[in-house]
């Protein structure tokens, strides 16, 4: 291995543990040591259980020694997103109202990941109730970008992305309504995947029919993202929207090959978003990679003009349903943007929601027709580079004012409403060394095709191998 243990790919680590060339205790201890070295500088992991993790690692090693069957994630450490329920370990949702909340059950994805052999070491930071693509809250503070600690790590899975980039864990779970897997991946030079809705079922949930928000995997490579997806995905009868395909289908991506693919490039998503020139400059330089890999790339985009209103209406409706009761009882304990989003939902009528749902159907059909002409769509993940950690959100993008905490997320959230898979993959760095992610979008249920394209691009460019110098402690 050329990389230190804390930067070794999860797929490689899992294989070494299974062959007993490494013990789970060595792997877990290496990551705990790394957390001890650098986490205070980025605040990515906010709850940590080293004793419990090492005890679980000893049990994992004993299981291998006894020749018992093990799962694909056997012995790998993971800290779960602090919005996902973890039995016996606090889940705060980044809110002071839940600062001491300890669930008595695991969320389904947490259960699946641990059943596959992963070892829980703690929880990763989130914005309050996962609201917004910048990770800060009054319980734990802000998560900082490992490439520049003065800047945001993105969000809402910002703690997860920063932990991956800094080598604190090899895999991470996350969730994504308006870009919460993709934006932090772009900001931190890691990989984040928003699967097709239903690919990763959600339970428990009060809104099992809702498909705007999804859970998904993050990692430092596309192969590792696919590995984690393989244990997260698969049907569950308690989730009526879950897809029937078993997760094992994602465990093998095959040889990178884009020969003959028709790929659309949409730098401003059909004129619906503003993007900083520095971001576009990095991405446009990458288009030739797809052509060199055998694809044909040309400018094209589905009609996304209705996507803004659809997303904001359905999001506001969900905020009111999920958090309205907390607003009535604890308004002063909620951040202002959460209050605003709930009140936006309360101002909606049933007709407003029905019209947005109908418009979303038309958008899905528009995307379906588009993907009969093109295999993939390329676009920016984020419209900006990582911004100062003290800001709630950028006030201006490409010279245009951003009036709410949602405005600067448009390049991710217009894709969310389509019901299609979308991958953020490292695409290079700005002139001052800040990461930029490329968004690869495919037809609904074509998750494997999107992952394969990302794997091919990653293999050709190797942008993901550039580590943050900040996260390397002095010798």
UniProtKB/TrEMBL annotation:
Identify the InterPro entries for this entry.
Answer: Amidase, Amidase_CS, Amidase_dom, AS_sf
Record's superkingdom? Bacteria
Domain Amidase, chain residue ranges per copy: 26-451
| Cited PROSITE patterns | AMIDASES
| GO molecular function terms listed in the Swiss-Prot or TrEMBL record | catalytic activity
Q: Which Pfam families match?
A: Amidase
User: Could you tell me what this protein is called?
Assistant: Amidase
Q: Which organism is it from?
A: Streptacidiphilus fuscans
């Amino acid at each position: 291995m050329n990389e230190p243990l804390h930067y070794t790919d999860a797929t490689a680590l899992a294989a070494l543990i299974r062959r007993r060339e490494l013990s789970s205790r060595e792997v877990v201890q290496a990551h705990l040591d790394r957390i001890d070295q650098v986490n205070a500088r980025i605040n990515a992991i906010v709850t940590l259980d080293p004793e419990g993790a090492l005890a679980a690692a000893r049990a994992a090693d004993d299981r291998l020694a006894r020749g018992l069957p093990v799962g694909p994630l056997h012995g790998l450490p993971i800290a779960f997103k602090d919005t996902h329920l973890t039995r016996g370990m606090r889940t705060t949702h980044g809110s002071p109202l839940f600062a001491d909340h300890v669930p008595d059950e695991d969320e389904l994805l947490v259960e699946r990941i641990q059943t596959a052999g992963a070892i829980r070491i703690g929880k990763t930071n989130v914005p309050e109730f996962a609201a917004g693509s910048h990770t800060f809250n009054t319980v734990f503070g802000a998560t900082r970008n490992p490439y520049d600690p003065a800047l945001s790590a993105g969000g809402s899975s910002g703690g997860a992305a920063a932990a991956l980039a800094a080598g604190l864990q090899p895999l991470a779970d996350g969730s994504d309504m308006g870009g919460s897997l993709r934006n932090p991946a772009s900001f931190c030079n890691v990989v984040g995947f928003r699967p097709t809705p239903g690919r990763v079922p959600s339970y428990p949930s009060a809104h099992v029919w809702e498909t705007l928000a999804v859970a998904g995997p993050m990692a430092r490579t596309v192969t590792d993202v696919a590995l984690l997806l393989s244990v997260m995905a698969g049907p569950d009868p308690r989730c009526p929207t879950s897809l029937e395909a078993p997760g094992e289908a994602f465990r093998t991506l095959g040889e990178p090959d884009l020969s003959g693919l028709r790929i659309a490039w949409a730098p401003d998503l059909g004129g619906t978003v503003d993007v900083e020139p520095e971001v576009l400059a990095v991405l446009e330089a990458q288009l030739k990679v797809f052509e060199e890999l055998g694809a044909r790339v040309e400018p094209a985009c589905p009609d996304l003009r209705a996507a803004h209103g659809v997303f904001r209406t359905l999001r506001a409706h969900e905020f009111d349903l999920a958090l309205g009761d907390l607003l009535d009882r604890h308004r002063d304990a909620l951040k202002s943007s959460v209050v605003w989003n709930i009140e936006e939902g309360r101002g909606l009528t049933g007709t407003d929601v029905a019209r947005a749902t109908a418009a979303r159907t038309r958008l899905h059909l528009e995307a379906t027709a588009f993907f009969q002409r093109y295999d993939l769509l390329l676009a920016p993940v984020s419209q900006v580079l990582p911004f100062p950690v003290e800001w709630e959100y950028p006030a201006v993008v490409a010279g245009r004012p951003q009036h709410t905490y949602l405005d600067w997320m448009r390049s991710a959230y217009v894709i969310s409403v389509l019901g299609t898979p979308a991958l953020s993959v490292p695409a290079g760095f700005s002139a001052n060394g800040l990461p930029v992610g490329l968004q690869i979008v495919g037809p609904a249920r074509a998750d494997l095709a999107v992952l394969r394209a990302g794997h091919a691009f990653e293999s050709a460019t190797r942008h993901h191998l550039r580590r943050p110098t900040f996260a390397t402690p002095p010798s």
